[in-house]
């Protein structure tokens, strides 16, 4: 959920203004970041939220679908695709992750998010000048990284639900209104909406209707 139109170095400074907001003080020691996530304090680079981010989000979705497909034999008669996640590495965001899960599970019919072992993707937390994002490790596994500072300034459930939307195949659309979940930080910090709109819900169901056929195809 990177904020558009500014350099990430400027974003990192701006996000620091909200440290006393919704989540309270960030833990003194962050959970270990997954492979490929730079440590806080690395040199910020210019925001590049177009083709590069779109490619990363698509790769993440593809990795999740691939992971689900490997487990298709476990529930051949399932009416919906089950996507398993782990929140063990993001303990500070457990309530937001739980709420995000509830939001998505009540919004769509063809895919269901559940917490469990042998996850298809994981949540991590920490500090990163890039803010929160969804990505893959390049080896078929996906993860969502939740940045402390960004979640202090923006509605934390919206951030989490937005990043989880990438798990389900939705791209960023920063120019959209607050009513559009995937507009992310585009509408600004005053936006409190954490619900996908009807078009986003429909798109996820469409994707996973096809995903269901692919996942259980022999």
UniProtKB/TrEMBL annotation:
Signal peptide interval: 1-30
Gene3D superfamilies named among the record's database cross-references: Collagenase (Catalytic Domain)
Biased composition annotated in UniProt, kind: Polar residues: 189-199
GO MF terms held by the record: hydrolase activity
Pfam families cross-referenced by the UniProt entry: Peptidase_M7
Principal location class: secreted
Residues covered by region (Disordered): 182-205
The protein's required cofactors: Zn(2+)
Keyword annotations from UniProtKB, A to Z: Disulfide bond, Hydrolase, Metal-binding, Metalloprotease, Protease, Secreted, Signal, Zinc
Known EC number: 3.4.24.77
Cited InterPro entries: MetalloPept_cat_dom_sf, Peptidase_M7
Swiss-Prot/TrEMBL catalytic activity: Hydrolyzes proteins with a preference for Tyr or Phe in the P1' position. Has no action on amino-acid p-nitroanilides
Cellular localization per UniProt: Secreted
Family: Belongs to the peptidase M7 family.
Protein name, UniProt field: Extracellular small neutral protease
